[in-house]
Amino acid sequence: MTIDVFAADEQQDHPMDVAFWAGLARQVLMARGVKGETEVSLLFVDEAAIAALNGQFLGKTGPTDVLSFPIEDEPGPTGRSPDFGGSGPGTSSDQGILTLLGDVVICPAVASRNAVEHEVSLDDEVALLVVHGLLHLLGMDHENEAEAERMEALEQQLLTRFYRVRRGA
Predict the structure, then answer these.
(1) What pLDDT, on the 0 to 100 scale, is given for residue 80?
(2) How far is residue 1's CA from residue 95's CA, in Å, rounded to a whole number?
(3) pLDDT in tens, 2-47
(4) Rounded to whole angstroms, how far apart are CA atoms 155 and 149?
(5) What are the phi and psi torsion angles at 157 (to 5°)?
(6) Residue pair 79/93 in contact by the 8 Å Cβ criterion
(7) N-term to C-term CA, the chain
(8) Which H helix or E strand runs over 152?
(9) Containing H/E element for 54?
(10) Cα–chain-centroid distance for residue 113?
């Protein structure tokens, strides 16, 4: 049972260490109780790409720092149904189920500008965006003040545990 984080750097403004960010994402997902065969994509894109996604999926104009696209709310059916495959005799019902959690798309160019405004390094800003995006995939939101405070507190806990310790901050 593994959590696979497929990371790709599809921009040239600020080269990203995709292995590092995939590792952070994997640790956060495990800490949040994600189990089984799970896949997540972590993409670093330029401003044009994220602006296009922002317009297409959120109806907003211009680039943003992070977008999250959940794929599945629940794992698919199990068993030996001919339409769904199955794990076969002698295996538990939770083996072989692949959960496609979703995609987190980050724009390092926007993150870089935000980092200056927030008076942090680009890596610190990207770490926050990775965690923030993953929490959205896991169903958290910040539509009201209570949700926003809860999400921000959890972000800081996860960053302290998995990012700041790793970076020696």
Answers:
(1) 43
(2) 8
(3) 899 999 999 999 999 999 999 999 999 999 999 889 999 999 999 9
(4) 10
(5) -60, -45
(6) yes
(7) 32
(8) helix 145-158
(9) helix 47-58
(10) 21
Residues 63/34, Cβ–Cβ less than 8 Å: no
CA–CA dist 45, 89 (Å, integer): 44
Q: What is the pLDDT of residues 99-155, one digit of tens each?
A: 889 999 999 999 999 999 999 999 999 999 999 999 999 999 898 999 999 999 999
As a three-state string, the secondary structure of 107-148 is CHHHHHHHHHHHCCCHHHHHHHHHHHHHHHHCCCCCCCHHHH
Task: Give the integer Cα–Cα distance in Å for 82 and 66.
Answer: 39
Do residues 155 and 145 make contact, with C-beta atoms less than 8 angstroms apart? no
pLDDT at 72: 60
Cβ pair 29, 92 in contact under 8 A: no
The owner of tokens 């295996």 is 91
> In 3D, which of 134, 169, 61 has the Cα closest to residue 155?
134
CA distance 164 to 147: 24
Helix, strand, or coil (residue 93) = coil
Q: Is the dihedral of CA 55, 42, 103, 43 positive or negative?
A: positive
pLDDT digits (tens, 9 = 90+) for 44-99: 999 999 999 999 999 999 999 999 999 865 544 444 444 444 444 444 444 557 78
